[in-house]
Each structure stands twice: as structure tokens, then as C-alpha cells.
Amino acid sequence: MAEPEQPRSREEVQQQLKEVQELLARHKLVEGLVHRQDMPRHDLVENLVHKQHVGELSRRLDALHPADIADLLETLPLEERLFIWELVRAERDGEILLEVSDAVRESLIETMAPEELRAAAEQLDADELADLAPDLPEAVMEDVYLSLDLEERAQLRAAMSYPEDAVGALMEFEMVTVREDVTLEVVLRYLRRFEALPDHTDQLFVIDREEKLRGVLPINSLLINDPEAEVASVMISDPLSLRPDDKANEAASAFERYDLVSAPVVTSDGRLMGRVTVADVVDFIREDADAEILGNAGLREEEDIFAPVLDSVRNRWAWLAINLITAFVASRVIGIFEGSIEKLVALAALMPIVAGIGGNSGNQTITMIVRAMAMGEISHEGAMRLLKKETGVALFNGIVWGGLLGVAAWLLYGGWQLGVVMTAATTLNLLLAAAMGVFIPMAMQRFGRDPALGSSVLITACTDSGGFFIFLGLATLFLL
After folding, report:
1. Structural domain contains residue 54
2. Cα–Cα distance measured from residue 392 to residue 173, given in angstroms and rounded to the nearest whole number
3. How many domains does the chain contain in total?
4. What is the pLDDT of residues 306-339, one digit of tens each?
5. Beta-bridge mates of residue 275
6. Rounded Cα gap, residues 115 and 230, in angstroms
């Protein structure tokens, strides 16, 4: 049986996935034609065609990396997804369940028998099992927990005791440790006993008899120094280390700043618990970015694009309801000035411009603020400085772009007063957008909410209603 391939280039992966999709489509087409044919030994022919296509699909899937199979499953409608899932070798189920999105994982788990889920979970390490555990039925998880040895149970409890945005949730336990009083030659002989080193092993962790971290031994130092030298003489004695309750985004910043491949995770008394690798950090950054994109659009969670209609409705309705309310508020603001719009029709044509430029500017501000908050670059104490800076940007843009809009309004409608009102309204709405762009994410974080969740909906509501009110109010005061 073919061994799963190593990771390939994106172009090669896309080509492989396209071939599998084409083979699947051909399988459905041919089976449909054969099923409708009236011929001798119809069942035998249909069975042979089915086996031929299934065999070819199975061979193609065996050659794919688990992450690529996960991508394939996410691109298929539910019926085809489950057909492909049945063709995946059982010993690869656990790896693939970890790779697929939460929504797709849920659809796959629903079709699996308890014994299949147990078998898939038992293939995983404790840190991987902790990622999968929330999606598994309690009875299955209890059976899997009882099948672990004492050390693995302790590791699983430790991994599951931390929130998703903590280093402890990213931590893995597979690592290589050595003592500081042995020679490099002893360490090399020890490493040769491994069939393979844990992924992303760029350094070994040096511990004492109480398992406290003494330092790290980079692999390059191990290879280039005298084999008779002791570990203590070449190790880095004060390495960057993480605590399990540190924020994951702070760890991600450290990995980026210092170009880390791995970092030890230690307890408050210095005892080595595990390590975080660059792969764990990349996964966290990707998931965090996905959550931020969805949150900005007002989506509560990642959605399976082929999910049933009712599931998608439940995921989207909350912020749509809020948006409906804010749109109604904006319409009432316009309603207040119906008389002004009737007297000067140009207002109806110009007011969407004021609201639109304010919404765009507000979204720019809020995106910058949310990103800076995620990277730990700002705090509540810096809010006033940020507000001053964004106010300055808004004032400059308002004068420049508002002035251009004012000139355009003057030329189009022949009234310099209308141009002045357009310039003033644009500037004031940009200032409102800047203030709300800083205030909304700060307020949401202060109240323990995700700053990105629905932020674009809220900023658009403020700039639409505020922009209409400012523009029509000024026009009513100075033009009518």
C-alpha cells in the first residue's frame, strides 16, 4: 500500500486535489449511466465499475498528506465528503480530524461509530487529543482517557486545563531532554537510539534530576563542538522560556521577533512541562486570523460552506438582526430631514458619499486597532494617544478629501454653500469614525468580548447614522 507523500508545493497539491475531484465526478457519472442500463449481468458489471473507481480513489487518497485530504474534504458537498471519508484508511482518521475545520470535523464525527472514534483518538498524542476532545462524545472520551497510562493522563489533563488562547493549550509534550553533566558523545549515542526525532527539534532541553530546566542545547552546537565536551560547557544557560498561562499571541510575537523554531514551557518553579514549536504558533495565528475575519463580518463561528440552511441561519442571524436595527435607525435619521431633502434634492445624491467615506475610514482604523491589540502593541493606557493620532489623520483626510468633494458638489449643483457643507460634513464624519474606531474595540475588550467580533457592523452603523445626521443637519441649518 502506498505511503502518504511528504508535503509538496502548493501547485502540485492543487493538481492532485483537482485530479481526485475529477475522478470522483467521473465515478458518479459512470455509475449513474451503468445503473440506468439494462444489460445481462447488470449487478456484476455495476459492482466491477464501482470497485475499479473506488480502488483508484483509494490509491490517490493514500498518496496525499493528511492536511491535503482535509482540504479536499472541506471543498466537497456533504454526500461526496462522506463518500471520500469512507475511503480514507482508518489509521489516518485521527490526523485528518485534527486538520479539518471545526465545522467539517463535526460533520465527520456525526457519521462515525463510537469504536471508530475511539480508534482514531487513540492514535493521537496527549496534546493532539486535547485539541480533539471537545468534539468527541463524553463516553468515547472517557474510554480513551482510561486507555492512557498515568503520564499521558497527566499530560492530557494539563493540556485541557488552559484556555485556547494560552500557551498551555499550544504546548506539546514530545521532546528530547538530556543532563548537563554528560558529554556530547553520550548525547549523540542517545539520539541514535531514536527512530526519528520529534518534529521541529532544533534544540535539546537540559534538565536536572528534579526536571528543572537548566538550559538548551542547540543541535548545531551538538554537531560542531568537541564530542568530549560536557553539555554544560556548550549549552545556552538562559534560554527564552514560556509559562503555560502566558497569552498565545505573546508567544507568537516572541517566535516572530527572535525567529524561534521551538521554545520550552516551564512552571513557576522552573520545571520543564513541554515545548511550543513554530508549527503550533502558525496554527494558532491562522486560526486567530480566521476568527478575526469571521468576527468582523458578524459570524459567530467558522461555517461549513455546505452546511444545512438552518445551521447557516443560526450562525448569521444575530448580527444581521443588529444590522437591521441600525439600518432602521439610519432610516429614521433620514426621515427627520425629509422636508430638507424635498427642498434640495441634491442632498439625497450626496449623503451616501458622506456615510460611505466615513465607513471606509472607520473600518481602516478599527482594523489597525484590533491588529495592534492582538499583537499586544497597545493597552487601555495608550487609548488617548491613539485617539489623538487617529483624530489628526481624520482631520487631515477630511480637509483634503472633503475639500475635493465640496468642490465637486459646487461644480455639479452650482452652490458654494453646498460645497462648504459637504466639506464640513465629511470632516466631522471622519472624526466620528476615528473616535468610534478606537472606542469600539477598546470597550469590547474591557467588557471581556472579542474586539473583532462584529466591529465592522458597529462602525458602519455609527458612520451611517452619524454621517446622515451630520450632513442633513448642517444642510438644514445653513442651506434652507
Report:
1. yes
2. 50
3. 3
4. 767 777 677 677 767 777 787 788 888 888 888 8
5. 172, 264
6. 50
